[in-house]
Design a protein that fits this description.
Number of strands of chain A: 38
Low-confidence stretches of chain B: none
Order of helices and strands of chain B: HHHHHHHHHHHH
Low-confidence stretches of chain A: 435-441
Number of domains of chain B: 1
Strand content of chain B: under 5%
CATH topology of one domain in chain A: Pectate Lyase C-like
Shape of chain A: elongated
Distance between the termini of chain B: 20 Å
Largest sheet of chain A: 25 strands, parallel
CATH superfamily of one domain in chain A: Single-stranded right-handed beta-helix, Pectin lyase-like
Oligomer: heterodimer
Structural class of chain B: mainly alpha
Shape of chain B: globular
Structural class of chain A: mainly beta
Mean pLDDT of chain A: 88
Chain lengths: 441, 255
């Protein structure tokens, strides 16, 4: 009996120890000008597993800091680590590492090594939080890792006057699963967020702007969710390729201007949903190629040059309950075959009527105009936009379509613009009554 | 000359047509802004109005006015006044009164509902187009003494610039679509004052579409201050060339 109670006390002791372990387990190594450690590198190399390296404010001229133990490297009062263009600043070579609260700056372009401010290679459970990364080649570079959190960082490069090839990506992730990229602001790099073969990840509330190439660029990255991000004024907008099962919701794509600039370029994206996004003032809102079984709902297309360029290689895509307002061209396409489905969208160019007052236009709307087809074939004719002659031809073609694709039409266009938040009831009614036949097709 | 312009203006205002024109424009622009919802949509509809109605009314009104004041001009010619003066006074009188009507009828609503660069360009374009088409009307009127013929020529000119020309350009672009046509299109645009005005407004209105493909080229040309200057200069040429040639004819002709 006594033996048993001793055993119980032992167990309790172990349990208490376990509870208080974050405090009891590991030391805190302080780094500042007057501390025992004056260099981050020194402190990190001496830290043991579970230690916290606490760096106080100040400028540290260091590079090549390698973290080989599961520690937490934490900056207090915004310490600056200046790499002085002499290579990578922080390399993580251990699992369970946190890097938080630093300003990392000055990493030179290095074509052979791809230097980054923070690089993680083949490690799990890494957290990179609230850092500011300035003037680097790559910002945060991860490869062959798992369980990553990249949150609230600012990555800011200088891309003015630099070629695309001499720039790195702000957040570059390769062959890594389960990544959470949340609340970062990236700008001035080649690609804002670059994902290649990244699965089951979340990209949320990021702002990616003024990058030389793409705001977001991913390929072979199935099963990821992109929500509440803003992609603005990137050289070529956002381009995503060769991926299935993507969820894109509540993102904003705006001000991507240029002949080869797209709000969103979809190339071979399948079985994905694109809901509640806003495409505003882009030369091309969405450009779609070889993308099938996509579902577009509740998106707003405002004042784009071309709201959607739908190539004939796309099939079985559904566009429902979207608003098209103030676009120069609503839809343009490159051929006659059309196997996509439009229903219950609002088009501000729709001129039909609604006699039974159910909010749905009684005559179908053809979003592709003859002139849009013509501009696709002869680009200089864009100069005749808004000419009376062109309007006349367009209207004649709408009455008797011969050149524009016959099947590309919205048979039930809405009369009023959809207010995505307030019109839930109306939208639910529409879904119940009208979407049923489509499901059976 | 001032006195002459005053007489011409007085004559036009007494005519009441100009008042009706002002009211028509005013009603239409206010209506379009109210119905269109957004300011941009209103401007878009107004653009069509400016490019179709304003040239038509300017050219028809100016031609009929010219023929109607033939007797007055004959009277003036018998006085010691130079013919060029008489002609210029007639021109300025008509052009200024039509422009004033346009400024009140379209300029004021634009200023009120959509005060933007696009709006400003629309108004400037409208005024310039008025001047261009009054000049063209005078050219049509001095070519022939026959009023019906003169109005016929004027209407044909309007028909050509407002409608046929764009069709021809479209045809040319389509037929030669295998060739690089950017510069050609630019030149073709300059050959029609209506197109020129349209493009100037368009580059501000459909800015997103204009950033794609060839549009970017035009944007870089017309978008700069230098380009706007050139476009305005070409527009002024469109006023000066028909005006001076019709003045020459008027000076030499037996009235």
């Amino acid at each position: 009996m006594r033996n048993l109670s001793k055993y119980f006390v032992c167990l309790l002791g172990a349990f208490v120890l376990l509870l208080t372990s974050p405090v009891a387990f590991g030391d805190t190594l302080k780094v500042c000008a007057s501390c025992p450690y004056t260099s981050v590198k020194q402190a990190v190399s001496l830290a043991k597993a579970g230690d916290v390296v606490l760096v106080d404010g100040g400028v540290y001229q260091e590079a090549g800091i390698e973290i080989t133990q599961p520690i937490r490297l934490i900056g207090q009062n915004n310490p600056v680590i200046d790499g002085n263009n002499s290579g990578q600043i922080i390399t993580v070579s251990s699992d369970n590492v946190t890097v938080q609260g630093f300003t990392l700056q000055n990493v030179a372009t290095s074509y052979t090594r791809d230097d980054a401010a923070i690089r993680v290679r083949q490690q799990n459970n890494i957290r990179i939080l609230s850092n500011t990364i300035l003037k680097t080649y790559y910002g945060i570079y991860l490869q062959y890792s798992e369980g990553i959190v990249i949150k609230d960082n600012v990555v800011k490069g200088e891309n003015v006057g630099k070629t695309e090839s001499s720039l790195g990506n702000a957040i570059h992730i390769y062959k890594t699963d389960d990544v959470q990229i949340i609340g970062n602001e990236v700008q001035g790099h080649r690609d804002g967020i670059y994902l290649e073969t990244v699965k089951n990840s979340t990209v949320e509330r990021n702002v990616s702007h003024q990058n030389s190439r793409y705001g977001l660029h991913f390929m072979f990255s199935d099963g990821n969710a992109y929500t509440h991000n803003t992609f603005r004024r990137n050289g070529a907008g956002v381009a995503v390729m060769y991926t299935t099962n993507v969820r894109m919701e509540h993102n904003t794509f705006e001000d991507n201007w240029g002949a080869a600039s797209y709000g969103l370029l979809l190339k071979e994206i399948n079985n994905s949903v694109i809901y509640n996004n806003v495409f505003r003032r882009n030369t091309t809102g969405i450009h779609m190629e070889s993308s099938s079984r996509l579902d577009f709902r509740h998106n707003d297309f405002e004042r784009n040059g071309w709201a959607i360029k739908l190539m004939t290689t796309c099939i079985d895509d559904t566009f429902r309950l979207n608003n098209f307002t103030g676009n120069s061209f609503d839809i343009s396409t490159n051929g006659n075959a059309q196997h996509n489905y439009f229903e219950h969208n609002y088009w501000d160019k729709y001129t039909g009527y609604d006699l039974d007052k159910d909010g749905i236009g009684d005559v179908p709307y053809r979003p592709v105009s003859l002139y849009a087809m013509l501009v696709e074939r002869v680009p200089p004719s864009v100069m005749l936009m808004r000419s009376f002659m062109v309007d006349l031809l367009d209207n004649m073609e709408r009455v008797l379509p011969s050149i524009i694709p016959q099947n590309l039409m919205d048979e039930r266009p809405l009369m009023k613009k959809i207010d995505h938040d307030n019109n839930r009831e109306f939208v639910q009614n529409l879904r119940q009554t009208a979407s049923a036949p489509w499901r059976e097709r | 000359m001032n006195k002459l312009i005053k007489y011409v203006l007085y004559d036009i205002v007494r005519n009441k047509i100009i008042v009706a024109y002002t009211l028509f424009l005013l009603l239409l622009s206010i209506g379009l802004f109210q119905l269109g919802g957004s300011a941009d949509k209103g401007l878009l509809s107004l653009l069509n109005l400016v490019l179709l109605t304003v040239p038509l009314i300017s050219i028809v009104f100016a031609t009929t006015h010219f023929y109607n004041s033939y007797e007055f001009m004959e009277l003036l010619v018998s006085q010691p006044i130079r013919r060029s003066r008489i002609f210029m006074s007639e021109y300025l009188g008509v052009a200024l009164s039509l422009s004033a009507a346009f400024l009140v009828g379209v300029g004021a609503p634009v200023l009120f509902f959509a005060p933007s660069t696009t709006g400003l360009f629309l108004v400037v374009t409208g005024v310039l187009i008025t001047f261009v088409f009054v000049a063209l009307a005078f050219l049509a009127s001095v070519i022939t003494r026959d009023k019906a013929k003169g109005i016929g020529i004027a209407l044909l000119l309007w028909f050509y610039f407002a409608l046929i020309y764009d069709g021809l350009v479209l045809l040319i672009l389509y037929a030669f679509s295998d060739y690089p046509l950017e510069q050609t299109t630019l030149a073709l645009t300059a050959l029609n004052p209506v197109d020129l005005g349209r493009v100037m407004v368009l580059l501000h209105l459909d800015v997103s579409a204009m950033m794609g493909y060839t549009g970017a080229l035009y944007k870089s040309i017309f978008g700069s201050l230098w380009g706007i200057g050139i476009a305005l200069a070409v527009m002024l040429l469109w006023v000066i060339v028909p005006l001076l040639s019709s003045k020459r004819i008027f000076q030499k002709r037996d009235l």
